[in-house]
Sequence to fold (362 residues):
Amino acid sequence: MRPYLLLTPGPLTTTDTVKEAMMSDWCTWDEDYNIGIVEQIRGQLVELAATRPDEYTAVLMQGSGTFCVEATLGTAVKPTDKLLVAANGAYGKRMGVIADYYHLDCQVMKFEETEAVDPARIDAYLTEHGDVTHVSEVHCETTTGVLNPLKEIAEVVKRHGKVLIVDAMSSFGGVPIDMTELGIDFMISSANKCIQGVPDFGFVIARRSALEQCEGVARSLSLDLYDQWRTMEDGHGKWRFTSPTHVVRAFMQALAELKEEGGIAARHARYAENHSRLVAGMRSMGFRTLLPDEVQSPIITSFHYPSADFDFKAFYTKLKAKGFVIYPGKISQADTFRIGNIGDVFPNDFNRLTETIRGIIA
Fold:
């Protein structure tokens, strides 16, 4: 039952089999759920994220991805610590807002929304400010579609001996990341992104030794990442509070389908081809991408309005009637709209999309 394809960065188009997995009810106290589903998911996430999985653990948290970002910052960063946030979009800035709410000692290093985070600036700042303890950044900033240079940023942060927190909300599962190789301490993502599950929970993959140091730090009951982890560890998959059982079961199915596709590398290749088909078709009609190709992610693509009198709402409505839902722009520097390349969508879908757009603007 698909009234349209969701060409957005999440929620996104899911397979029928993922949706069907939600058709059974589960008891949150039963081992079939906690051990048979939750613990399986936790183990699989760590296997996907790290080449030395024994050094890491996964914590599932109720709510949207931002809940997990707040849980991580509120649990991993102590009142005596100092946080540096590298921000080149709305989601990096949101980390700064969270830090303000928690009264953390935080500096937000701002970059233009159309440029990637510069590791050299982080290096210079850390050299001058040795009291920084934690650095956080967004890997794929879906405000525009920028893919920040995670490997280079991680190298700088680890050379300075700082804790690295990565918001990989829109990249994990769709872009290869090895937490072991990069030295990432906390990585955050959500069920309804590149794993292609449905919304209602997120997860944090953390270095065990780093998470073990977080006991008693959290300033929130519901968002205490350490206590959630400790309960899952001791209770073999038990959540502290009612978990979204149907959504969790759907996520287990989504993980199985990721494996069937060939893993993260294969999914990344599909997303990249989706993006390539989209850009080629749009450029052939005169649309300009917002970002230069060298900083563009395969996750979501921003396009300039084709003219000053372009009516996005009318364009959106016509596309929706033809079976495609896209995203408005999210920056103040230019009039743009965004098209997501992730989910259960394939290169031929983007061929159809661009031909549909060609007919609309003709």
